[in-house]
Write a structure and sequence with these properties.
single chain, 3 helices, 11-stranded mixed sheet, 4% helix
């Protein structure tokens, strides 16, 4: 672009004397000037919306509007750049190219549309990607991280190399970051979790599993390869309806076998030749490696089970099963007449008996009547210590005539005698050596074969045979649950130990009983339809207070000093005995025993009669500080030495106190004091000047009045009603002189 420069100096021609040939202005001179002006105008851009064609070079360029570039815009040259900054519509949001740092700086949230190739990005806040917008890594877009809108995905799409996570501790947690799912430690275990609980952990020798191992699929198999023998393999597998345990599945070891241990001792083993068992075998069928002989000797049919020796030898017959000529059958275990036992079916009485022999005498110990089904236990030659009455389905202890399902008869005695001598009707005891937790019990109720009902249990607490008594009741579970416990001298309900923090009830002989509930009512008390005390309190037998009900509300107190919680009126009211009304008689605190703070969201109402409630309500009290300030009606600023104020608000009455020590500086116009903490209600209040000095002019009758949130200042030499406004020149403005004004004003808000 070019600027216009005059070619002809017309002013110089004008100064020449009349008649001078140089004073003549020629048409060609006008033509030259107009051509220069036209050229300059043609190359100038329109300032409102300039358009530049070709290459334009600017030393500095500030753009406050829209720029359209139909070609490249270059700022600076290679190796020499300049800062370029773009501002957005929101304050504090900008885009800056910092040429000194070769950095693009974005202030605020930035949305990138399209593809951006950046050597490096430093982000001080969040980087947000929309659904299916990906963070892509690698020259071939190998690694992609994005959210589809349904789920999140980390995808290694190319398959070139592994997806590797390098860390000394790897953790995979749930979405709330409150539970582990996978935890792997460098040089240590890898743990897999279920619902935050470790279930499988690798070890230096294998794995540890917490909980059950469930194998599915068809014919699941556990394979154990033992490297101590080449190709030695053991299996546990499921094959349809069979469980197969196979030792040496590849048949590479001649001595392979399966061994069974209990408490560190081997009791059974399976070998290629059979099964060896140490101990007793209980089975539906039995094959014995030894003698099993049934023989008939004379008129007696006898089965003899032998442990060795020859038939009928003294050292061979352990048990003889025999039938005698007298019609009685039985079995002798040893010599029944001397030191053995006999099972006998008495042919004459049709009874089945168990007898024992000692010193040549045989005594009956147990008998069953074939016809009636009665069962008798004998504690002597004939006395029956225990009797089962089959027809009545009743059991007698010490009696042969039980009237109930179980009748136990014992000699009577005093409580002290029974406790001291142990003459109990029934006694249930445990081992001779007591250990903590050893228990015995009785189940009452339920049905045959069920554990439901009420259980009475004695639980040993120490080796000294100190027991707790427990009552357990079955609920929805198959077995009873403990409900009541007598622990020492304490009666506990819902607790196993006497504690004030556990859920339940504890009754203690010293009177320090307690009830505790984790989430419901710990104690519920009630009475009938009449009002009155529900809970009474006594001291040494003398009533000292009560909690009761009055008209479906609760009252609490002592004697005739009570309070009622009136739900229907949302109020707490003074009450007399039994919750009766007692107005104007009960104080809140006293002169020597007072409450601390009273916090109200409403007000305090004074008096009971006359006037509206609102006119007797004190609904606000507040103390605070405010900052008074000189303000000129036409602007300017003030220099302050002191600028303080305080206020007290009682109801709608506000009293403010202020101190100003200032020089007017650039203040102009009429002077006002602004910054009142509350707006004046519309009824102006007068200013009280407590002290004023060092004003620039005489200030007779300095006063003022409140309006809105300010004080208008007035001076009046004649004490007229209107007064004269205080102006800026009334305030001191010397370098070292300040005016002083101490004031107060009380107004309504």
């Amino acid at each position: 672009m070019s600027n216009y420069t005059k070619t002809v100096d017309f002013a110089a021609k004008d100064t020449l004397p009349s008649g001078d040939s140089g004073k003549i202005i020629k048409g060609t001179e006008f033509e030259t000037e107009f051509d220069n002006i036209s050229t300059a105008i043609a190359t100038k851009a329109d300032s409102a919306a300039p358009t530049f064609t070709g290459t334009s070079v600017f030393t500095n360029l500030d753009i406050n509007g829209t720029v359209q570039a139909d070609g490249a815009v270059t700022v600076g040259v290679d190796d020499t750049g300049y800062d370029v900054k773009f501002f957005g519509a929101t304050a504090g949001k900008s885009l800056l190219w910092d040429e000194s740092a070769d950095t693009l700086i974005v202030t605020g949230t930035t949305t990138l549309v399209g593809t951006a190739n950046l050597d490096a990005v430093d982000v001080d806040g969040d980087m947000t990607f929309g659904d299916n917008n990906k963070a892509i890594f690698g020259a071939g877009s190998d690694l992609q991280i994005y959210h589809t809108g349904t789920y999140s995905l980390i995808a290694d799409t190319s398959g070139t190399g592994p997806l590797r996570v390098v860390t000394n501790t790897f953790q995979l947690n749930n979405a709330a970051d409150t539970q582990n799912m996978i935890n792997a430690a460098e040089g240590g275990a890898v743990n897999l979790y279920h619902a935050g609980n470790a279930k499988l952990a690798t070890t230096a020798t294998g794995i540890d599993v917490t909980g059950d191992i469930v194998l599915g699929d068809t014919n699941p198999t556990i394979t154990m390869n033992d490297s101590s023998v080449t190709n030695l393999q053991h299996l546990i597998t499921s094959s349809s309806d069979r469980l197969i345990i196979a030792a040496d599945n590849n048949d590479v070891s001649a001595g392979s076998k399966i061994e069974f241990y209990v408490d560190g001792t081997k009791y059974s083993e399976v070998t290629p030749t059979g099964i060896d068992v140490t101990g007793t075998v209980t089975a539906d069928g039995l094959t014995v490696d030894g003698n099993a002989r049934i023989e008939e000797i004379g008129a007696i049919a006898k089965l003899t089970l032998e442990r060795g020796g020859s038939a009928n030898a003294a050292d061979s017959a352990a048990v003889d099963l025999l039938e005698t000529n007298a019609g009685s059958e039985g079995a002798n275990f040893g010599d029944a007449a001397t030191n053995g036992f006999r099972l006998k079916l008495d042919g004459s009485a049709n009874d089945f008996l168990i007898q024992s022999g000692a010193s040549g005498t045989v005594n009956t110990r147990f008998g069953i009547d074939r016809d009636s089904g009665d069962i008798s236990f004998y504690n002597g030659a004939a006395a029956q210590g225990l009797f089962w009455d089959s027809s009545a389905s009743a059991l007698g202890l010490g009696t042969t005539s039980p009237n109930n399902r179980i009748d136990a008869v014992e000699a009577q005695g005093t409580v002290a005698n029974v406790l001291a001598n142990g003459t109990y009707v029934a006694k249930f005891t445990g081992n001779t050596t007591y250990t903590t937790g050893a228990s015995q019990g009785i189940l009452i109720g339920g049905v045959d074969g069920s554990l439901r009902g009420v259980a009475l249990v004695a639980e040993a607490q120490s080796a000294l045979n100190d027991h707790d008594f427990i009552i357990a009741v079955s609920g929805t579970s198959a077995t009873p649950t403990e409900r009541v416990r007598v622990a020492g001298a304490n009666l506990l309900v819902g607790q196993t130990t006497n504690t004030t923090t556990g859920t339940g009830v504890g009754l203690v002989p010293d009177g320090t009983s307690h009830m505790y509930s984790a989430g419901t009512d710990a104690l519920m008390l009630g009475r009938g339809v009449s009002d009155g005390d529900i809970l009474s309190f006594n001291r040494s037998g003398t009533p000292v207070g009560a909690i009761g009900t009055i008209f479906d509300d609760l009252y609490i107190g002592t004697g005739d000093t009570n309070i009622r919680f009136d739900a229907s009126n949302d109020a707490i009211t003074p009450r007399g005995s039994g919750g009766s009304a007692r107005p104007d008689a009960v104080d809140l605190g006293s002169s020597s025993v007072r409450f601390k703070d009273l916090h109200l969201s409403g007000g305090v109402v004074f008096g009971a009669t006359g006037g509206a409630v609102s006119s007797k309500t004190l609904d606000d009290y507040e103390e605070g500080t405010w900052t008074p300030a000189y303000t000129g009606t036409t602007g300017g600023a003030v220099t302050y030495g002191t600028q303080t104020g305080s206020y007290t608000k009682v109801g709608n009455l506000v009293t403010v106190v202020g101190e100003l020590r200032a020089k007017r500086n650039t203040l102009s116009g009429n002077v006002e004091i602004t910054g009142l903490p509350f707006t004046n209600s519309g009824n102006g209040a007068g200013l009280s000047v407590n002290f004023a000095s060092s004003f620039a002019t005489d200030m007779p009758n300095l006063t003022g009045y409140t309006t809105s949130t300010k004080i208008a200042l007035r001076k009046n030499a004649t004490n007229s009603a209107s007064g004269t406004p205080v102006v800026n020149t009334d305030l001191a403005d010397a370098a070292t002189t300040e005016n002083y004004l101490y004031f107060s004003v009380t107004y309504l808000t």
